[in-house]
Amino acid sequence: xxxxxxxxxxxxxxxxxxxxxxxxxxxxxxxxxxxxxxxxxxxxxxxxxxxxxxxxxxxxxxxxxxxxxxxxxxxxxxxxxxxxxxxxxxxxxxxxxxxxxxxxxxxxxxxxxxxxxxxxxxxxxxxxxxxxxxxxxxxxxxxxxxxxxxxxxxxxxxxxxxxxxxxxxxxxxxxxxxxxxxxxxxxxxxxxxxxxxxxxxxxxxxxxxxxxxxxxxxxxxxxxxxxxxxxxxxxxxxxxxxxxxxxxxxxxxxxxxxxxx
Length: 261
What we know:
By secondary structure, the chain is mainly alpha-helical.
């Protein structure tokens, strides 16, 4: 309840700020960006995208702001918005590493690994942040069922990188793809034990349970993943698939609706 009150207060403060006559457009644009983030957190997509538009129109030539708005839209899976923004930004900066990495992430969210791999070819020879590059290339390889290549990339994600838990969960998926259930189980349990409050560990455990057709144990791990991260789309989608299999259509629809928020 307190967090909801704080969100409402922040929105009220920022809304007042953008109406002050002495506030310059750059400050107003920043306020609209922060309002967009708050509305996304409140699961109000319409108003969030409205704030993205306001911010963009106030500073159309500010490349850094436009990139931040694109990254925010990507974070909340607004892929049509991301595609439109990346199209414009890449036209002006076709070799920008951060834009190309966002393009890769968007392609993976749209399940277009072939397109992602083509973008990686454009990144060849450029200085790129190791964590995002190796994670995304590893995931693209995984989606193309190049399991050994995926494991190689994902294993090389730096230990200190924020992407490491996700990389380790994807390694479990790749090991299962190779048919190495025993090693996958070891890796999943190690991740879940080391990071008990991280949703990726629970997702990895669930993957192993699903491979073993231990549906009840898988559902328990998936629900725990959602408790740890209410925006864990992979867990919500897997739970929805399981609900559909049991003809629990209303429950499946509710879970899928959560992935769209």
